[in-house]
Structures are given as C-alpha cells and as structure tokens.
Amino acid sequence: MSERIFVAARSGRVTRFRLRFSVHELDLPLGESIVGRSSSAWITIDDPLISRRHARFVATEEGATIEDLGSRNGVRVNGRTVHGPVALADGDRIRLGSQQFTIRKAVEAEAGPRRATGFLVRCPTCQLACAKDAIVCAGCGSSLAEKDETTTTVHPAWSIELLLDTFRKAEGLGRPTDMERILAKIREEVDKSHELLQRHRLDQLADVAVRFSVEQRDLEWARWALSLFATHRVVPRRELGEHLGRLPAAERTTLAPAVDEVVRSLGPGPVADPIDRETLRTLSSVVGGPP
C-alpha cells in the first residue's frame, strides 16, 4: 500500500531557507513559521504522526532555528531529539513525526503566490515520495500505476522506530505499564505489516522484548521475540541468551519449545556458521534444551 501525504506551503514572504522533502522543496520564509497538521500552519503536513502545531521554525538573515511545540512524536535534528530552540545549519536533517526534511540555504530570495507540492505517494519499490500524477518513480523508475490513492498510512518501519523510541523513554522513566502497552503496539505493527524486518530492527525488537520479559518476569514477550527469529529463519544474537540466563532455571525451561522452533526454522542439518552454531548451543543450554 502506498503512503499518501499532503504538504502545502504558503508563500509571499522573502525566504532565505528551504526545506527539502524528497524531490520537492518548500520555502521557509524569514520570521516565524509553524509546521503542523493544522490548516492554519505555515506548512501543513497531513500525516497522522504530525501534531496540529508540531514545531516552530524561526528564520532570520543570520540563520534558522527549530523548536518542538510539545508534539506527541517529537522533533529530531540529525538523529537527536530536540525541545527548545536549536540552531540549524545548511544540510541538517530534520524529522517531524515520520517525515524527514533537509534544510538548505536558498540561492536567492524568492516571493510569490501560495505554492503546494500536492499529494505525494510513496513508491512501493524504493519508498521515495513522488507526485501523485507521476507515471514512474523518479528514484528507481518503477511504475506507479497501481498506487493506492485512498488511504493515508505510515510506513511500518517508521512507526516501529517511533514506538521503540517511546518504549525507551518509558523505560527510562520506570513505567512498566506503558512499556507493555508500547510493546503490544509494536507487535501489532509487526503482525499487520506482513513484511520481514531488517536484521538490525529484528535485533532491536528482540532486545527490548526479552529485557522487559526478564525484568517483569513475563515470559510472553520472550516467546514472542524467539518467534520472530523463527519466522525470519535467523539465529538470535548471543546477547539474547545472556539476558535469558538471568531468569530462574524453572522459568527458563518453559522457553525450550520456542528455542526448538527457532532451530527447526533453520532447516535440517547443522548450521554452517560456527558462531551461529555456538550461539544456538548456548541458547539451548540456557533454557535446558538438548545441545
């Protein structure tokens, strides 16, 4: 399913900066510019992860800053979460919700009538955002003829990344109820996406699920983490066994069937990689299964 986004930027004020979104550019004029889902914002982004008043840009002749206005999903600059006004440099990457922009200095000042990029659809092949009426993707050249123009969705990888960030914040604040609620939402996102996870994302999910399982003595999440490795037919990282080793022996043994399922998913015969073989032996030993 393709993602549909609508981005509109008002103009009419002198601009020294631009926000680059995929293959499109939006003017960021001098003065204050509010970005959000509200139609009254200077830049309106119709995205469910964007708050009505999400962030504030302030541009002057000397430079530009961005400030989070208490949004639900936050503002990041070059991967770092920001709150108060933060100075921006040419080329900085800005993420608002699930949308990523790059700030660029304008070559020359421009003014003109209201300008809108229109509806964008995300190419199902390379995930580049393209104009709704484009026939082929500007990034990879694949056909966009079958794109879905009726539903606004968020790419599952972005949603999971945001949920992981939220989980870590709840973990830092010592809120296990919120942590479990977020894990349940992550599991829901994984189940409905019907897409295999990238290896680094799989390891991240397994790590938070198993650590929560150990800390809360709730083995449901350890079983779910192991089931992910069985589904993806890959060997868990060694650290997963180390986490499980912190459980009482009687509880660890109940995970033996889940570990056996991981082993069976890898197919008949010995695992070729010696490190993977040792990891599986260690994991089986931790849960009391056969070596």
Protein described:
The structure is a single chain. The protein is α+β, with helices and mostly antiparallel strands and 291 residues long. 35% of the residues lie in helices and 24% in strands. It has 3 domains: 16-106, Tumour Suppressor Smad4, CATH 2.60.200; 116-143, no CATH class; 160-287. The chain has helices at residues 156-172, 176-193, 199-216, 219-232, 238-244, 249-252, 256-265, 274-286, and strands at 4-9, 15-21, 24-29, 31-36, 43-46, 55-59, 64-68, 75-77, 80-82, 86-88, 93-96, 99-105, 115-122, 129-131. The strands form 2 sheets. An 8-stranded mixed sheet has the order 10-7-6-4-5-1-13-14, with no helix packed on it. It is elongated and about 65 Å long. Residues 1-8, 108-119 and 146-155 have low confidence and may be disordered.
Task: Summarize this structure as a short list of keywords or feature phrases.
291 residues, alpha+beta, 3 domains, 6-stranded antiparallel sheet, 8 helices, 14 strands
Poorly predicted regions are 1-8, 108-119, 146-155
The largest sheet, given as strand count, sense and whether it forms a barrel, is: 8 strands, mixed
Overall outline: elongated
Number of helices: 8
| Widest beta sheet: strand line-up | 10-7-6-4-5-1-13-14
- Percent of residues in beta strands? 15-25%
The total beta strand count reads 14
Mean pLDDT: 78
Order of helices and strands: EEEEEEEEEEEEEEHHHHHHHH
